[in-house]
Hints:
single chain; mainly beta; six-stranded parallel beta sheet; 49% strand; globular; disordered C terminus
Amino acid sequence: MARKEQKRRIADVEFGSFIADGSEVRGAYRGKTNLLIAGAVRGDVEIDGTVMVMTPAAVDGTVAAVNVVVSGRVDGDVRARKVAEIRRKAIIAGSVVAREVYVAVGAQVGGEIIAHGKKGVTSFREQRHAASAPPSSSK
């Protein structure tokens, strides 16, 4: 009997690129690998994968990707081709557009929220205490 494949959560994605807390990138950031942002980006972010904007990260520009998870600050729009997950500590100055949008109670979105898929916008209560970066490996 074939084993049923488990549905993979966005938070379980492996990140190939990382902008560390205390680091700042100036200018547009584009790539084809999943990106975890814990620092600051002063420009648009366009990724062919998943982008996670952690607390206390800040992006001053548009974030566009296949999937976007925000628990930090985005001073611009969030555009996801599939799923946008807006966690409770998130602050987004612009609009959120995605096929599916999940917004935690307590999140702040200054613009429109547009879900163009069948599922629409879903509100949820975040169960975790705080979004944190994955543990660093020790040598």
